[in-house]
Amino acid sequence: MNRPALDSFWIPFTSNREFKADPRMIVSAKGMYYQSEDGRDILDGTAGLWCCNAGHSHPKIVEAISKSVATLDYAPNFQFGHPGAFELSARLADAFPEHLNHFFFANSGSEAVDSALKIALAYQRARGKGSKTRLIGRERGYHGVGFGGISVGGIVKNRMYFGNLIAGVDHLRHTHDPARNAYSRGEVEFGVERAEDLLGLIQLHDASNIAAVIVEPVAGSTGVLPPPKGYLQRLRQICDEHDILLIFDEVITGFGRLGEMTAAQYFGVEPDLITFAKGVTSGVIPLGGVAVRDEIYETMLEGADAPIELFHGYTYSGHPLATAAALACLDIYETESLFSRVREQGAVLEEKTHQLKGANHIIDIRTIGLIAGIELAPDPDRPGARGFEVMKKSWQKGLMVRVTGDTLALSPPFIVTPAQIEDMLSILTDILSEIE
Ligand code: PXG
Ligand code: PLP
What residues does 44 pair with on adjacent strands? Predict the structure, then answer.
């Protein structure tokens, strides 16, 4: 094997020292499997980083991108345009919730989130409510790593090293409550009352100063937290009563992870803006974006005071390769009925994962859609160490899992089979019996 020097690449969200001493190098991928540099097949239990929903190297996506790059490698979308961005927006408008028919494009979930926060602020101003500037996030929320995203986000380590962040942000309490909700399937039973935190913040600041609330419908990164029954509905109701925008961050939940195009449709709650990324191209080409409610877009076009309605955009907003990949991906989701596969295989994953209850160290299991979170008791002296050890041993035994702290997450591509789910859980069962 011919490995390049490892020193220069600063690896994101990773212990560079540990990785470079013992690398986990991936050299190719096809369908449900990665191949390691030493020639082993690694079952993809996580769809990469929750993104490769259609499985790896799907021939139709490969073909669409190859055709696109040979025809139109790049075109600016500032003052010019290309058909792919318009076609993709129209296709998404058909598939997304009823009143979200306008699409702004970025290149990642982080950029999508910052775009959504900026659209919310600009809209409040364009409609003459310029005092509505405060933003509300939630503890344990993950909204990417831009300054906007970490400001409304609620993961301590993602915030604590980076100064004052943006001003005028508050947080709702998170909804994780293992004492009442352990071993849950789907939405959790208890915790709807935590939506009332929003009323407390409205009393403190007055709604005339609050622009928007942003939450993940199912918190992913922080360890798979499905919402309490009625919670998202109650947030929607409070936002309606107090004229506050509701943003769902669907970077993980969008594009079928729960068996519907969006979590908004799955839960029957329509937000004002939806951020998305990852599954929109099955992770193949970076693309993110914001779905915007008609009224916001129309108000901006009528009410914003310059010829350019929104002073925001990225060089690669609506890149032709990304829109080609996304269009191919939408075709695949449809022709291969991948969202109904999510519902079928989600039921298998739920059943099999909950059978792990009672295994060494497990203190909670949470499942929803095609996602399973398995929480281990932390080693009191070394929180996170058990999760990390499971991840490393899984790699050695041919499985990719994701860990945050001591919670393992499984979120395989939608083409996963029951036998592959069985393989994942039998590898994990073996490992759990081995670790201290
Ligand atoms: N919002 C949400 C809800 C996300 O899950 C982002 C924004 C940021 O997207 P980008 O494309 O900028 O990374 C995310 C990303 C994990 C993990 O460990 C989760 C994400 C990314 C990487 C790892 O669970 N989510
Ligand atoms: N920095 C400089 C100096 C630039 O010229 C640009 C874009 O033109 C950017 C940053 C932003 O890059 P992007 O549009 O890819 O986000």
Answer: 400
